[in-house]
Amino acid sequence: MNRARLVIFNAALGPLDYRVPQGMEVVPGSVVVAPLGPRQIVGIVWEAERLPATEVPEARLRPLIEVLPVPPLRAELRRLLEWTADYYCASLASVARMVLASGGALRGPSTTIEYRLTGGLPERMTPQRLAAIEALEGEQATIRELAGIAGVSEGVLRGLVNQGVFEPVEVDCDRPYPRAEADSAQPILTPAQAEAADRLVTSVRDGAFAPFLLDGVTGSGKTETYFEAIAQSLRNSRQTLVLLPEIALTEAFLRRFEERFGAAPVVWHSSLKSTERRRAWRAIASGDAQVVVGARSALFLPYAQLGLIVVDEAHETSFKQDDGVRYNARDVAVMRARFEHIPVVLASATPALESLQMAESGVYEKLLLPSRFGTELPTIDTLDLTQEKPERGRWLAPRLVQALRDRLARGEQSLLFLNRRGYAPLTLCRSCGFRFKCPHCSAWLVEHRLSRRLACHHCGHETTPPANCPECGEPDCLVACGPGVERIAHEVEELMPEARLAIVTSDTLNSPDKAAQFIAEAEAGLIDVIVGTQLVTKGFHFPELTLVGVVDADLGLEGGDLRAAERTYQQIAQVAGRAGRGAKPGEVLIQTRHPDAPVIVALAAGDRDSFYAVETEARRDAGAPPFGRWAALIVSSETEAEAREAANRIGATRPQLADVMILGPAPAPMAMLRGRYRYRLLLNARRSAEVQQVIRDWLGALSFPQGVRVAIDIDPYSFV
Ligand SMILES: [Zn+2]
Ligand SMILES: [Zn+2]
How far apart are CA 332 and CA 458, in angstroms? Predict the structure, then answer.
C-alpha cells in the first residue's frame, strides 16, 4: 500500500487520502496519525473502494506520520461501523470515534504515576486540606482524578504532595486482570434453566449468528442461565460482552459473576477513571479481557475475538442513546453479532414489543423460563385513588399505609416506587402564583430538599431556594406541588418515625460503593422501607421484602408517547417482581386514578399475554414499530426565529411519498432545551420504505445557517 484512505475524526470533513511513507506498514483498520493543515489528527485506514472521495494526484499527497501501536480494527467491526453510520444517518467519523474511546490506550504500553495518602499530616491544616485528606482515604489515582473525587483544586493536592501527605506510586498501566474460570463453581439449575442453558451452550459452541430472546419472569433465573453460555465462551477462549442498562447497579451482578467464575469481569462505563479506561480498552483489543460488562458504549469497543453478546434487561430504554450518534444498543448488538457470526442473547422479564414480534415471526429463537418452583408470584391489587383518598396533603392511601405498618410490625421490608427524583416537581408562590422555571429549558425546577437546591433535570441548572418569592418578594410563601421520592420518604417518616428509611435514586446511589453499601444494609435487615425511582425496579433480591407499593401508576401514562403503556407495564411489572422473592409471599398495591386502563387491568390480573396482545393491535393500527417505522427530525437554534425558519424550510421541501407520512414541523414539547429553541418533524413510514435514503436526499439538498442543528433520530424513543 503506498497510498491510504482515512476516516479522520472530524465530522465536517469526508475521507482523506495520504501517502504511506517507505517502510511504514498499514492495512485496512490501522489506526494512524496524519497531518491536517498545521495539526495532527487520528484516523483509521479504510478500504478506498468502500469510501468514495475526490482522488488526489500522487504528487500532492501528504505522508502519514505514524501507525499507533494498537491492533488494526477488524473487518467485522468496520462493517458494523459502516452499517451503524448508514442506518442512523450519522457520519462514519462520529461512529468510529466511539471505538477509540480512550486516548491514552492509543499510545502503547506505559506506566503512570498515581498518588495515595501516606498517613502523614501537613504542617498547617486548612479546612480544604482536611476535606481532601478525609475524602481520599483509601483512594489511589492521578492528581487530577483525586482532585475530582475530593472536589478541591489540583494545587491543594500538589501542596500536600510536597509536604509528604501523599506519595507517588508507579503503576503498570496494562497489568493483567484476574482470570475467570468456566468451572470455578458448579451451577444449580432447574430443569427449565438447564434446558435453555443447553441450547445457548450448543449455539456458542457452534459459533454462528443466532439471536435468542431469553424470556422469563423476574426471579426465574435468567442470569444463571446465560452464565452457562458465558462459561462455554470462556472454554472456547473467546470474549463475551454483557450489556447492562444501569451501571451504578451492577454491584449485585458483579458479585454473582465472581461467585460463579472466581474473578470479576472487566467493567466499562462512562465514569471510569482514565487509567481504568485505558487498561480495559487495551485488554479488550488484545483479547485479554475475557468478559466485559458495560453500558451501551461498550458495544463499539474493538474486541479481538468476540464469541457471545448478552443484552440483559434488553427492554430498557436507556439502551437508546439520545445525543451524538442516536443509536439503540439493543439493535446494534444484534447487528454486531451478525457481522461477528456469533450468538446474541436478549434477556428480559418484560421484552420490548419489537423483540417479542421478532420471536413470534421466528427471526429470534425464544427460550422461555417459567417461574422458579416454590416461589409464588406476588398478589397484585389496585387501589383506586378516587375512592380511597389519601389524607389531605398526603400521597399514600390508608390501605397502603396499613400494609406498611403491618410489615414494620412483622419485621419485613417494604418498597415504595415513584419514578420521580427530588422532593417536589414544582415550586410556586402562594401569593402571586410565580413558578420556578429553568432559564434554559421548558421545564420546572425540581426541589431537592435533602441537598437544598432547585434543579433542572434536563440541563443540570441549579439554584438555592430563596427565602422570599423572587417575583413579589413575599416571605414564606413558596409551596411544593406534587410528590417526589423525598416527599414520600418524609411522609413515611411522619407516619412511622421508628421505620428505618432508604431513598434510592441516582442522587443517593451515585457510585458503585454507595450502591454496594445500600445492598448490604438492605440484605442485613437494617432498612424497613425503601423509597425509590426506577433504579429499584431491577437487579435486587431482598428475601425480607414482602410489600411493594406503586405510589402513582398513572405518572408514566400522562402526556406520553405511543410507548407509554408499554413502559408503564414494564416498570410496574419489574418493581412488582421485587416482592416475595424469599420464602414469604409478596403483595403489590398499585395506586391509580384509572383502575380501568388496559395496562392497569393487565398488571392487576398478572396477564402479560393479553397486555401484549392489546398493545400489538394498537401499534398495528397506528403503523407504529414494529409494524411501521418512525424517524424524527429535531431542528434547533439559540434563536427562535432561526429555528422556526429552518424547520419551516424543511417542512416546505418535504417529499411527497406514498409510503412515508410526514408530520410537522411543530414546536417540540420541550420547546427549549439547554438554551436552544426546538422544532420537530415526525416521519411515519411503512416497513418497506427506505426512510434513511428519503431523509438523506431531502436534507442533503438544503443548507442552513451555522447556528442551526438538524438532528436525525431513527427509531426514536423520546418524543420531547
Ligand atoms: Zn410571589
Ligand atoms: Zn434546564
Answer: 26
